[in-house]
Design brief:
This protein has 11 helices and 21 strands. The longest helix is centred in the N-terminal third of the chain and has 22 residues. The mean pLDDT is 93. It binds 5'-O-[hydroxy(phenylacetyl)phosphoryl]adenosine. 5'-O-[hydroxy(phenylacetyl)phosphoryl]adenosine binds next to helix 5, strand 7, strand 8 and strand 12.
Length: 427
């Protein structure tokens, strides 16, 4: 589809969705009325800037079904998004929503080169989390054989990967590394398995992590992005070029805004990603603020797809840490840790406040081969810690105390990994 055709389609769909929520969701109706807007004011996609934003707080305040547009007897699935505080976000899907989601997921898998000849295991959690069932439906639509492994039971999963000749895997990048570790422990070598493609997402990851996963599992790893409030996995996906992730923008319209002024930013600039669902029936959202920070990439993709690409997420406007006044993203620490061969990609930031001064400790696991060699001599521990501290200081612009840990001692996660313990209780 040409850009002009796409914009025309988006404009038509936007008008329809605004009309739909105006008549079906009292929350949106009163928001629009407060702004003196009616659906007739929204005619082209450029009119989107007139619309109000929606935030996670709006969803929580209207828990559980306040923003649902479709009647309950048309909702065929309900997911809930993980949240650390307050009410979870409840998202209901109509049959048509599940169909759109499934097709979007199939688009992702097809872009990764998955076909009906593949056997794909889905090791995102099945349940309230959208990862498991979302990926599952897409694999079935492509016609590949799906193995609903879910998380947990990792040794059994590794044996299945080997014995069934599984060729594709969908999981978080941190779980992919955990699988590789488990394979090592079980004495299963990379050439005994047939994985060739991985769909990794649900948490930020870096190029260094990609290289490591690809090397250890012998596959090509692709990014997949999404969020429950908008749909689930499949909002965007990498193609073979692996230069940004194509957004399924016929269904999810993206904008980048300045998170402080809330003004839209020009293409190419980094800011907060905002989505409007253009076709959703169950719980449509207008200008939902994701808090994810990234940019939309200008220009055409050599793969031939014309849908716009987004850069990797480099942080969130809300999990950003402010330590001694400096903005710190866990992903910055990760890139430093992974740039040094002594360390496994396992780390934890522990933030505290001592005598009114913020402190940052970075705990990081040594790789087995360095652990044996290093821990024998206190001088070597000291030297390695200092080396990492110097690198962290140059990247973060603040000092961090490093604590080296033995392999396997930082807690593993089977879903999204947590990288921060903030003990400051500033709220
Ligand atoms: O994580 C949906 C998903 C499942 C995506 C499986 C990909 C694969 P939520 O639990 O609602 O939904 O969390 C959404 O996770 O706003 C991002 O901050 C983060 N996230 C998701 N995918 C990526 C990614 C699912 N590829 C939140 N890169 C989003 C970086 C990601 N962050």
């Amino acid at each position: 589809m040409s850009r002009d055709q796409m914009r025309e389609l988006q404009g038509k769909r936007l008008h329809k969705i605004v009309e739909y929520v105006y008549h079906h969701v009292p929350f949106y109706r009163s928001r629009l009325q407060e702004m003196d807007l009616t659906p007739d004011d929204i005619r082209t996609i450029d009119d989107i800037v007139k619309l109000p934003f929606t935030t996670k707080k709006d969803l929580r305040d209207n828990y559980p079904f306040g923003l649902q547009a479709a009647p309950q007897n048309e909702i065929i699935r309900i997911h809930a998004s993980s949240g650390t505080t307050g009410n979870p976000t409840i998202v209901g899907y109509t049959r048509r929503d599940i169909g759109v989601w499934t097709e979007c997921m199939a688009r992702c898998l097809t872009a990764y080169g998955v076909t009906r000849n593949d056997i794909v295991s889905v090791a995102y959690g099945y349940g309230l989390f959208t990862g498991g069932l979302g990926a599952h439906n897409g694999v079935e639509m492509v016609g590949a054989s799906v193995v609903p492994a879910s998380t947990g039971n990792t040794e059994k999963h590794v044996r299945l990967i080997r014995d069934l000749g599984i060729t594709g895997i969908c999981c978080t990048p941190s779980y992919a590394l955990y699988l590789a570790e488990t394979m090592d422990k079980m004495g299963i070598a990379k050439d005994q398995i047939h994985l060739r493609v991985g769909a990794f997402g649900a948490e930020p990851w870096t190029e260094n992590m990609r290289t490591e996963i690809q090397e250890r599992l012998g596959l090509k790893g692709y990014n997949i992005y999404g969020l429950s409030e908008v749909m689930g996995p499949s909002v965007s996906y990498e193609c073979s070029e692996q230069h940004g992730s194509h957004i399924n923008e016929d269904h999810f319209y993206p904008e980048i805004i300045d998170p402080v002024t809330l003004k839209p930013l020009p293409a190419g600039e980094t800011g907060e990603l905002v989505f409007t669902t253009l076709t959703k029936e169950g719980m449509p959202v207008l200008r939902y603020r994701t808090r994810d920070l990234c940019s939309l990439l200008p220009g055409e993709c050599p793969c031939g797809r014309t849908n716009v690409r987004m850069s990797p997420i480099y942080g969130r406007s809300d999990d950003m840490l402010i330590i001694r006044g400096i903005n710190v993203f866990p992903s910055q620490v990760e890139s430093v840790v992974l740039s040094m061969e002594e360390f496994a990609p396992r780390y934890m930031l522990v933030v505290d406040r001592v005598n009114n001064l913020d402190t940052l400790q970075v705990q990081v696991e040594l790789r087995q081969e360095y652990f044996t060699a290093t821990l024998d001599t206190p001088a070597a521990i000291e030297e390695l810690s200092k080396k990492l501290e110097a690198k962290l200081r140059s990247v973060l612009s603040i000092g961090a105390k490093v604590q080296l840990k033995a392999p396997g001692t930082i807690e593993r996660s089977q879903g999204k990994s947590a990288h921060v313990i903030d003990k400051r209780q500033l709220k």
